[in-house]
Amino acid sequence: MNASDEPPSPRRARAYAPAWLALLAGFAMSAVAAAWFWEEAGRMDQLRFQTTVTNLIEQLDTRTARYAEELKRFADFLATQPEVSENTWEECISRPAPPGNLPAFLELAYVTQPSMPTRAEVESLLKSNVSPSGKALLPKRGPQSLSLTRHWRNACTVTPQETETWLHHPQITARWWATLDGRLIASPRRLVPGLNGQPLAAVSLLAPIFADDFLELSERHSSVEIWRLRAQRFKAHVVGTIRWQPIRDAVFATGAGQVEFEAFADATNAAEMTAENWMGVGGPAESQVLKPGFQPRLKHIQPWPFYRARWQLAFYSTNLFDRQSTRGRAWVALGGGMSLTVLMAGLLAVQVRARRNQETIASQLRLALAELGAARKERERLSHDLHDGAIQSLYAMQLSMSRAAEQAEAAQPILGRRLSDIRRNLTAVIVELRGFILQHEAEPGPTGDLVSVLTAIVERLRGSTDTTLCAQLSTEASSRLASEQAVHLANLAREALSNALRHAEASRVTITLRDEGAAVALEIQDDGCGFDRESPRHKSLGLASMTSRAREAGGELRIESQPGKGTRVAVLVPVPSIKT
To answer: Strand, coil or helix: what is 209?
Structure first.
């Protein structure tokens, strides 16, 4: 028998025991660490997925709100027109410039109800229909036919006849009647023919317009009868059709390709998500969500309210999301074995720290979203207060002014015309106030609207004063201002012009907007009586407001005035230099 064939002695076995124990301990620790990494990676991926979904929904809310607000402004302007002529329609289309600012607009349409009864007919119905309690009632009135009066299209071949036929579909006529506060109504999915002959998935928003006397008549009715009155005084719709694909692509880009989503219109639950309401083009084979056996690693179905309709949004992770997962660390820990045991402790610390940082970021994001939601609710409350309070009072003043103008026209034509001018100015103020209610915070970037805003202010004031108003406005200077700066300067100019016309007793007021290289200067100068700024009676809220406006625009307000020598209000706003 050779020595090599001898069985190992107990001592030799005990010598290798620590090595075997170390090896077994290393494998055990690696396996435990790998399992922990796998579980923690799953939690972090779930948190990352939820954070991305929240951001995508926020982006959807923001982008769709831009189109809704533009359509509301469009409808508000048309509501002030006694007749929407071809020229008026072209002016409306050119002012918001939907192809440039909101490229997802496929068509805009102005649709009227020819069968709307006159006010005299409504008054007659009120007199003839009386309940046993002596209360005036209106008869029930179902949906009437609509007539497409004006039409505009962009990047599609839909005809007015096709749109009018679509409006009379039973699925659409059930949505004609808006709520009393005039909120938009969303239609179901709509396929619009594109320029290349292929259909485009779209959805239409309908903005209702009621007769001018609707608010006056509604004061005589209960909340139940107002619904019937609304049908009697409903005169028009503004229809804006939005292509879904550009909105989806813009929002999808913010997800960095890690999370994909699909939208289903008019679906109250996941079971109603079908190819008929899928906001895409093609059959179920084109939709990942509708494919049989589609099982992404992470998936979430989110109900989404969309202007009195309920949508379902299906979010799911992509291959890129999986590639950026931290699950690969588990395989590194397992493959390292005993030699990576010490290193594993450091990796665990890094993992824990990464998890805590991720949770902190997620918590801060949730808090920020909650604060944003609260701010939005507060803004909506203020908008409703202005709408229900100030605007309704202005409407009442407008009606009174109209009656006064009609009464004075026969006896004193000059006074009648003057009152008519004041009524038109009051109408412009109402439209402007409604625009402020609907306005979002301005986005950063250049703007060229300040010149047109200042020109409109000057033209409106010329009709209500004998003072000579001169405007020297530079388009180049306006284009160098950010949108938020332009808003502040427009409000400052409005306040300064109002002060000059009301208090200065000036014969001439000049407003100047010019480019001074590193800054843009706005000046309002008059040749009036001037004032002493140190006098307590001149420390008004208006001066404080102008000072605050100048500071928020990034500039500084300067007021030069002496009794008998006029007043000069100037603000200098620094702007980025022009690159050559």
So the answer is: strand
- Number of residues assigned to the chain: 580
Helices (H), 317-391: 319-323, 328-336, 341-386
Query: Burial of 140 by CB count in 10 Å (0-12 exposed, 13-18 middle, 19+ buried)?
Result: exposed
As a whole number of Å, the end-to-end CA separation of the chain is 96
Is the four-CA dihedral 532, 533, 534, 539 of positive or negative sign?
Answer: positive
Burial of 9 (0-12, 13-18, 19+ CB in 10 A): exposed
**Model confidence, pTM:** 0.52
The pLDDT of residue 360: 77
DSSP-derived 3-state class of residue 539: coil
The token duo for 6 is 């001898």
Residues 493 and 549 sit within 8 Å (Cβ to Cβ): no
What are the residue ranges of helices labelled H in 387-510?
392-411, 413-438, 450-462, 475-479, 483-503
Per-residue model confidence as pLDDT tens digits over 207-256? 888 888 777 777 766 655 676 777 777 888 899 999 998 888 888 776 66
Report the 10 Å Cβ neighbour count for 92.
21
In this structure, of 165-174, 281-290, 303-312, 557-566, the range with the lowest mean pLDDT score is: 281-290
φ/ψ of 201, rounded to 5, equals: -75, 125
DSSP structure class, residue 338: G
Predicted local distance difference test score (pLDDT) of residue 502: 78
Contact 235, 277 (CB under 8 A): no
Instruction: For residues 410 and 403, give the distance between their C-alpha atoms in angstroms, rounded to a whole number.
Output: 12
pLDDT tens-digit profile of 243-290?
A: 998 888 888 776 667 888 899 998 989 899 998 899 988 766 788 898
Q: Cα(151)–Cα(109) distance, rounded to whole angstroms?
A: 4
Angle at 251 between CA 245 and CA 256, to 5 degrees: 120
| Residue 538 DSSP one-character state | G
Separation between Cα atoms, residue 75 and residue 86, nearest integer Å: 16
Distance CA 573, CA 12 (A): 88
Q: How far is 491 from 442, CA to CA, in rounded Å?
A: 14
Instruction: Provide the token pair at 396.
Output: 């009442």
pLDDT digits (tens, 9 = 90+) for 541-554: 567 778 888 888 88
Task: Give the position of tokens 């284009």.
Answer: 479
Question: Please, what sign has the CA dihedral across residues 276, 278, 284, 286?
Answer: positive
